[in-house]
Design a protein that fits this description.
This protein is mostly beta strands. The chain has two domains: 194 residues, no CATH class; 166 residues, no CATH class. It is built from three helices and 38 strands. Strand 4 and strand 5 form a beta hairpin. It is globular and about 65 Å long.
Length: 411
């Protein structure tokens, strides 16, 4: 069974106290117009870099520069490897948890790496964390983040952010005994530590032109403590994340759908997101992961009205685009799969379904007998046994091109 689908919603309970505290701190704050500044960070005094300012940089670690910056300022990080961290102590029902990050952003700053700027987050929870309402409007660009216990870049309970032109590699290194909840196994679901880039209850933000490789999974959108909507994930290279999916769009909140099965978008759900123009190759090849996964992960969960368009998807463990619904009280309808080039996928077969051969696109209701309204249009699907494996009523497919496909549509 695909492990991302069944993950327990642990982080919501763990992080909720900190979210409330962050929101309370932001309430009533006032600012006056001021000139913005650029604060420079270099690993040593008189460091060399593309900018002469690296030789006179006041800061030699990233977090002290962030602490000194005000909203609107830019923190420029010169070439070099940075190992320092800042901790955030989070209240939880089980006691306090310390989250360490190579860069912790709780204000609307621009964190910009010059070529060769690397955050080595070995021993820390995350490489970069953008956290809370104070971080609304922040931007992270040009950095390499690596070796974190959890995510390379995590954005949580914020919005209007931009994560662009970063390299996120070799993260998700925590074991099941790690204090980071995403690393903890749940039943028969092994840990994934949150994947490379994670938007956790984030709205109207952009993940653009990043490389996410050699993590457990590539890019994750989820809704543990509030809606995740209006985001754009575009132009990213997502490859060789062997344990999980390339791009995952999953509803983990049980408040996204009411008892009548109707979406409640103000309280939860992953919806109205656009996944476009990404290259998604060779993910989930040693675990259970598709190219792009859309799923409801809990009863009451929702991942609906998302668009997957113009991507190139091939060589993934599960289907190129996989839509999974395992709970009758959940919603994965209204998703549109259009204009993608989808090569050979489902290399390992999907053990949670009847589909055990190479497949371009799969829709599966997990035996719930529930209709999944999905539109699959204008895609090119090549070199698969099944072009589309449809295990749920409600499919609307037209205008697709099938090249060297044995069965175009399998019902």
């Amino acid at each position: 069974m695909q492990r991302r689908i069944l993950r327990a919603v642990v982080p919501a309970a763990v992080l909720l106290g900190a979210i409330v505290a962050a929101g309370a701190g932001a309430a009533g704050a006032t600012t006056s117009p001021r000139a913005t500044r650029t604060l420079w960070v270099a690993p040593t005094a008189q460091a060399k870099g593309e900018s002469a300012a690296c030789a006179t940089a006041k800061y030699h670690q990233i977090n002290p520069a962030i602490a000194a910056a005000a909203a609107g300022d830019t923190v420029k990080v010169c070439a070099g490897t940075y190992t320092g961290s800042k901790k955030l102590v989070v209240s939880s029902p089980g006691g306090p948890i310390t989250v360490t990050s190579g860069a912790l952003i709780e204000k609307a700053i621009n964190l910009v790496g010059e070529p060769g700027a690397v955050i080595n987050a070995a021993g820390h929870i995350n490489g970069v964390t953008l956290f809370g309402p104070g971080a609304v409007g922040a931007k992270v660009t040009g950095l390499t983040t690596e070796n974190a216990i959890g995510e390379g870049i995590l954005a949580a309970a914020t919005g209007g952010i931009v994560i662009e032109n970063n390299t996120v590699e070799s993260n998700d290194n925590g074991g099941s005994k790690s204090s980071w909840p995403f690393c903890q196994a749940s039943g028969n679901v092994p840990n994934d530590c949150g994947e490379g880039i994670h938007l956790l209850s984030v709205t109207h933000s952009k993940v653009l032109d990043n490389t996410s490789e050699f993590n457990s999974g590539g890019i994750l959108l989820s809704d543990e403590f509030g809606p995740n909507d209006g985001n754009t994930v575009s132009g990213n290279l997502v490859l060789d994340n062997e344990s999980d999916c390339g791009i995952t769009v999953v509803g983990h909140s049980g408040t996204a759908v009411n008892k009548s099965g109707k979406p409640t978008p103000l309280t939860g759900g992953v919806y109205d997101n656009t996944i476009s123009k990404n290259i998604v190759i060779s993910n989930g090849t040693k675990g259970d992961g598709g190219g792009v996964l859309i799923a409801s992960g809990v009863s009451g969960g929702g991942s609906y009205n998302n668009t997957v368009t113009g991507n190139e998807i091939a060589g993934n463990g599960l289907s190129g685009v996989t839509i999974h619904q395992h709970f009758p009280l959940s919603d994965v309808s209204g998703n549109v799969i259009s204009g993608n080039w989808i090569g050979t996928n489902d290399l390992l077969g999907d053990p949670g379904t009847g589909d055990l051969v190479t497949t371009g696109v799969l829709t599966d209701n997990g035996g719930t007998h529930k209709t999944i309204k999905v539109t699959i249009v204008g895609n090119t699907i090549a070199w698969d046994v099944y072009g589309i494996y449809d295990d749920a009523p409600g499919l609307n497919q037209y205008g697709n091109t099938f090249l060297h496909v044995t069965t175009h549509v399998k019902h």
